[in-house]
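PROTEIN DESIGN WORKSHEET
SECTION A - STRUCTURE
LENGTH: 231
TOKENS:
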């Protein structure tokens, strides 16, 4: 087969303790999956079913990299998240079987152009311009299930320049990881390499040029991102 121009390289993320890479197929994100964050965004978590948005696979950024302050925003936000990496595909997955489809877990930072997201939300438009821009999905090394098990409780924390901004527990997720996997799989077929960013706790806030943002999750280490000048 001949292509009219070379295809893009395969997007991938690191694997903890290995030189191997995990190929990224799609990135799904769960919206407002911590009650306190839902409330700080002006929503009632007890009345809304889970919903999802996506980021392109090539939006991934590795641990320790510098992300240029993105264009068209004056309100650039961090969002600490637990990331699930799917290793075995499936459709209509039962909750009781969902964890069998997980290859591993990573730390994520769902970078957000909040001003653009809120404008879209108020106008009933898609969130793509606020969420799916270049280099908006920071994902640390993926830890295999065989090494870390299935995290369901413990600290998830984010600091900016050493100051704590988000501090919560994974057991505060409104929709658990098995529930999220099952719900997604009833809408479309999950495939190996799909990543799921499972939602952020309360305390989201602004990033500025020169900031260093660190996300830590129990058992998974720390994910560091530096914010550089606009490109």
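SECTION B - SEQUENCE
RESIDUE ASSIGNMENT:
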């Amino acid at each position: 087969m001949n292509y009219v121009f070379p295809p893009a390289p395969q997007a991938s993320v690191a694997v903890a303790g290995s030189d191997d890479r995990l190929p990224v197929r799609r990135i799904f994100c769960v919206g407002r999956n911590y009650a306190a964050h839902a409330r700080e965004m002006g929503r009632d978590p007890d009345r809304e079913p889970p919903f999802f948005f996506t980021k392109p696979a090539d939006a991934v950024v590795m641990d320790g990299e510098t992300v240029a302050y993105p264009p068209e925003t004056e309100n650039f936000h961090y969002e600490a998240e637990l990331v699930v990496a799917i290793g075995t595909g499936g459709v209509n997955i039962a909750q009781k079987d969902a964890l069998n489809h997980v290859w591993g877990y990573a730390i994520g930072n769902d970078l957000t152009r909040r001003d653009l997201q809120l404008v879209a939300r108020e106008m009933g438009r898609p969130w793509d311009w606020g969420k799916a821009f270049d280099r908006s999905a920071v994902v640390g090394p993926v830890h295999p299930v065989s090494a870390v098990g299935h995290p369901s409780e413990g600290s998830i924390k984010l600091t900016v320049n050493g100051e704590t901004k988000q501090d919560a527990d994974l057991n505060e997720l409104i929709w658990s990881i098995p529930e999220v996997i099952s719900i997604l799989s009833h809408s479309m077929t999950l495939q190996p390499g799909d990543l799921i960013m499972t939602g952020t706790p309360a305390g989201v806030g602004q990033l500025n040029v020169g900031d260093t943002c660190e996300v830590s999750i129990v058992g998974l280490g720390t994910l560091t991102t530096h914010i550089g000048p606009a490109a």
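SECTION C - NOTES
DSSP finds five helices and 18 strands in the chain.
The chain has one domain: 21-228.
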